Structure formats: structure tokens, C-alpha cells
Description:
Blueprint: H1 2-45, E1 64-67, E2 71-75, H2 81-87, H3 106-125, E3 134-139, H4 142-153, E4 161-164, E5 169-173, H5 179-194, H6 201-213
Parallel strand pairs: 2-3, 3-5
Antiparallel strand pairs: 1-2, 4-5
Amino acid sequence: MSVSLNRIxxxxxxxxxxxxxxxxxxxxxxxxxFSEYAREVIQAKSSGKxxxxxxxxxxxxxxxxxxSKYFTIYHHPDANLRAIERRLKKRAFYFGRETLSGDxxxxxxxxxxxxxxxxxxxxxxxxxxxxxxxxIKILTDRRQLRDEYYKIFGYQxxxxxxxxxxxxxxxxxxxxxxxxxxxxxIAHAIIDSYFEVVxxxxxxxxxxxxxxxxxxx
Length: 217
């Protein structure tokens, strides 16, 4: 009887050890992904010292600003707002019952489209976190976007857009703006605000891509 109990106890200890080692292995493998995302997002949630520079020196000398229900939009004075509005309507999908008056300004039209993309992203994710207005800064081109990224993170990266949770700001270039790119970044803003601990970068990318691929359903 004592022999059987010893064997059972040994098996339990072995099973516990295997579980601990497996868990450690998973955490170890996840650390590179986790730390990469932490540099850009998770540290932004911390009130302590982090790698992000203070948001202050913009690549644009002066911004023109307008607002919608969910966004504060910044753009340089020479931005082609009509072209931006057209690019935000590349994807054709149902707009619901909300309508704009015939004399709506181009700013109102852009804001309406952005608000709808925001609401659609929340529906697809089924996430409704409490959030302030998201800032959208529309840079002139990708070079200016790259410079803005460098001022924030201290190193250069080639991209069309990015979102920084610490500043609750979506950065995008006028040359690259589209509804697909914007809704992808909006999804990141919703995901980052929804979870108490921001998910790893690869998981967040999958979720944001899911929103874009189901936008027209």
C-alpha cells in the first residue's frame, strides 16, 4: 500500500514539474513578442518612466483642427480634405440610418465617416470600452510620418500608419490614408482601451486585421 502511495506521489510531483516547465517555456517564447509590444504600448499605460518621448514637437508647424463625436482630427492647412474624404469611402458598406444634410461641410463628411468606422469596429470586436476622443494626426507624406515616429520612439520605422495608446493618437500620412488603414488603427485603439493588460502585438494585429476583413459584412 505504501509503495502504491509513493508511486502516486511521485507521479504527482512529476506532473507538477512538467506543468511548471511547460509554463516557463511558453512565457520564455512569448517574451520577445511581449517586450516588442511593450515598448510601444504597454509602457504607455504606466505612469512611471518609459521609452516614449514626450509628445510635443510635431512634424507639422501648424495644425488645422476639427472634431467629430469620437475624434479630434488634425491636418496641415494645405491638406486636400476632399481627396481624404474620397479615400475614406473606398469600401462600400451600409451606413445605417444616419444621414448628413446636403450642405454638410467636408469636415462633417470626414467626421461622419470616421465615426461610422469607429462604431463598426466596436460592433465587429464586440468591445465597448470607455474612451475619450481619439486624436488623428494626418501627416503630409510617409517621410513626415517616419519623422514623427522617430521623435516618439527614438528609432525609425517604415510604415503607413501607427497608433500610440499613451497619447490616444492615430498617426497616418495623407498619401496613404484609406478606410481600411484607418479602421485597422481604430481597432488597435479599441483593443488597447478594452483590456486591462494590453495583449501581445501579434494577437492585437490578428484582431485588428479581423475587423478590416469583416468590415462589409
